[in-house]
Design brief:
The protein has 2 domains: 179 residues, Vanadium-containing Chloroperoxidase, domain 2; 247 residues, Vanadium-containing Chloroperoxidase, domain 2. It is 53% helix and 1% strand. It contains 14 helices and 2 strands, in the order H-H-H-H-H-H-H-H-H-H-H-H-E-E-H-H.
Amino acid sequence: MKKTMRFNSIAIAVAVMLGVIQSGCRKEADFVDKEKVSTSATERPSYHDGNNSAIIQTWYSTALQLVKETPGHTPPIVARSLGYMGVTLYQAVLPGMEYNPRSLVGQLNGLSSLPARAHEGQYSESIIANAALARIVKSLFANASAANVLKIDSIESAIKLQYSTHLNASALNRSVDYGHSIADAVFNWSTTDGGYQAYLNNFPSGYIPPAGPGYWLPTAAFQKAMLPYWGSNRTFVPADGPGPIDPPAPLAFSPENNSAFYSEAMLVYNTVNNLTAEQRMIANYWADGGSTFTPPGHNIAIVLQVIRNSNLNLFQASELLAKVGIGLNDAGIICWRCKFRTNLLRPVSYINTYISPSWTSLIPTPPFPSYTSGHASFSGVTSQLLTYKFGDNFSFTDSAKIAYGFAPRSFNSFNNAADEAAISRLYGGIHYSFDNDNGKACGKLIAENIARLNW
């Protein structure tokens, strides 16, 4: 009886959550400009539920909460998970889309096949999306707490109950099985990319960083390099392999006080020493460090807000989340490839050695090399993909950090937000300006490759 009562309470909570997202989640609309997005939707059988993207909001919000509560899910790993979630969702609902979308099978590295739907029989797109996201989230967060595993199962059951009233048992089971089969196939593919279960070992003990002037060294006692081999992982997009997509070489290291590198370090030093209240707030706003949804999660939270306030349907939202997820994953790999290829020392190390031994950064320096900036890379690819979708002058307000005690921040474009995210790392004292500029530029190149796929 207690179990039934507990499930009913979860079902009610999920129903309320979905209702809020569908109709009442407009607190952001008070300060978010909405752009009407045209759709090609025609009248479809009710069982497709293609106009409802509330389920997506529930599952992505759940995933971002799991990021905060599950050990080892550092930014590149989070970017990877968001990538596989996006591919799973897109491929699961693709057969039900009104337009003529293209499968990513044969387009993404190593994705050679996925299960097909039966030619006969009724399907529910909402049930499929729910089953697919529940299964892939559970697989990607396999080290989640027992309580959170139960939460995943309970949310899946509650949403299934809510959306199955119009389905017979055969259609319901067929839809659930198909969603699960897509998620399982995508997850099996994910295990061969080099990042499988990396959350269990972010700091491999066998890695020995190169030593010498200009090279990265730990900035705290007993610190080890985080994910030094991540750059060897398989990217989603073939064009994102080593080559022209990689950032150029960083500025040549020099300890001389008349060198360009010294000037860059002095810029960090003087900026942090003379921060305005607004700059200090910006540094903290975009920090997204431990116990948060991380920088990739922050970018996805922005995408979720735009989806809600632009009234994107299930299919439109699925395609956008697939694009951004793929971009975040590839940006993480390419950024980390650059970090551990160049192994450039952090500003605090340079400044303590050549400028001021007592200087400290505003934001704690992360445990990996400086060049390029992960924040700038993640924001660069996300902003470019959102700009492709909504245009250069899409004004919006980011309210994703209200729960962390920050007021919403308004921007006149996605690129404007990406610029602020990038420069926040200079304000925080943990990146040179060329880390930020070249990381953001690389993110935009990754977005171009994603846009060239057949969607």
